[in-house]
Amino acid sequence: MPSGRPRLHRPASLAGLVAAGALLLSACAGDGGGTADTGTEFVTTGGGVSTVARGHRADAPTLDGTTLDGKPLDVAEYRGQVVVLNVWASTCGPCRLEAEHFAKVSEEYRGRGVQFVGINTRDVQKASAVSFERDYGVTYPSLHDPAGRLLLRFPKGTLNPQTIPSTVVIDREGRVAARALAALDEAGLREMIAPLTTEK
Length: 200
Known about the structure:
This protein is of the alpha+beta class and 200 residues long. It contains four helices and nine strands, in the order αβββββαβαβββα.
């Protein structure tokens, strides 16, 4: 008889996706769900955004690769700016709900020391992801990470992305400062970014 333990259903041919799925890609979450990190000094607000005080932030991992339009990108190139990382997939309902908000707020912050970068995961074929960006007016670059390998680079116990969508904000010194594990609207996104833009 079955043990009753839930099993992940992933084709054996997509071994990379299985490995990444062990971290966070088992579901597309829209309710802010996710396991809380342990051993960290962060605070989670009523809006579901977790933040870390400036003196306790961990360095962001190396996040580099190829964008959906085939260009090389290393997030470290944006050091000195606030970087907003949004993890998304074209098949994710909550990602579709927040996409137009991210597109709008990214344009508002253009030239103000804030750089948006997407991390597109699950979309093995780029075409669906490219169509998603076109449909929602997303103009900032997205790293293509179908197997979720970039997400595995975030150290355990930090404000690492754990669901799709997730948003992680990196401060000007290249450290992880805030995280949301649910879709964000314009107000929530601005509230997440604003305190970091005033840090000196």
